[in-house]
From TrEMBL:
Top-rank lineage group of the source organism: Eukaryota
Name of protein: Uncharacterized protein
Length: 258
């Protein structure tokens, strides 16, 4: 099922702020991974999809699994992300999805979006727009995080799609400033962990993360196979709480307590 975009009116661009290289949020990144399309249009991609499965991840706050993407013609990147959440009051498993532009001058009228890095998103920059939704979800299912061009050359939509039920949730829609192009053919992603208030510190106390990150794909004409896809531990805990295993069309990362 393909959702209907909320695309209305003329929107006010987000104001620009100075980028702080020493933002403490940058030190929360635990794992990094990279991807690159060998082929594809020189002008860039009109869409990209990042499949992920978190079947055995702890259903609690803290982890933020993000895939970044750059655009031709502008300096700052965007990202799309998924976060485990606690069960709701009815006992339903929940996920949060985020869709963010870090580019100053990004505009939005979408009800799930706001200016700046709020709504539980990563805070690498205070520029741009971030969007977030919380949805009931079956953690056993694989989810597609899709970024696609809609309406005009500069307007982009983020989707969370359950690959089993085919149910699609629109995370948000935003418009980049004039001069922005299509999605670049290579970038990287990360897993961030933000310790929650009252939770103990130390490597042995990280919640369990078991995520299978599949190779991204695109419907853009000429987008070929990937190479250089891999992951690395960027934290201080090392092999004590981290391992990775290659699987068909991706890899599974294990992090935190068993």
């Amino acid at each position: 099922m393909k959702p209907t975009a909320v695309l209305v009116g003329v929107c006010i661009p987000a104001l620009g702020y100075a980028f702080n290289l020493f933002n403490p949020a940058l030190y929360n990144v635990r794992l990094g991974f990279r991807w690159k399309f060998i082929d594809g249009p020189e002008s860039g991609l009109k869409d990209i999809t990042f499949p992920v499965n978190m079947a055995k991840t702890s259903r609690e706050r803290g982890y933020y699994l993000s895939q970044q993407f750059g655009f031709h013609g502008v300096r700052r990147q965007g990202h799309i992300a998924i976060q485990p959440r606690p069960d709701n009051s009815k006992g339903q498993a929940m996920l949060r999805a985020n869709f963010t532009s870090h580019q100053a001058g990004t505009a939005t009228c979408h009800p799930a979006c706001q200016a700046g890095p709020g709504l539980g998103g990563a805070e690498g920059s205070r520029d741009g727009v971030t969007c977030a939704i919380d949805v009931p979800a079956d953690y056993a299912h694989t989810f597609n995080l899709t970024v696609e061009n809609v309406r005009d050359a500069n307007t982009w939509r983020g989707l969370l799609v359950d690959t089993v039920t085919r149910k699609a949730h629109e995370i948000g829609v935003w418009t980049l400033p004039s001069g922005a192009g299509d999605i670049q053919r290579s970038r990287f992603g990360f897993v961030e962990y933000i310790r929650q208030p009252g939770s103990p510190g130390g490597c042995e106390n990280y919640p369990k993360l078991e995520a299978t990150i599949y190779h991204p794909w695109s419907n853009s004409a000429g987008a070929g196979e990937l190479h250089g896809v891999g992951s690395m531990d960027l934290g201080l805990c090392g092999k004590n709480i981290f391992k990775k295993i290659k699987v068909t069309n991706g890899f599974t990362v294990y992090y935190g307590r068993a």
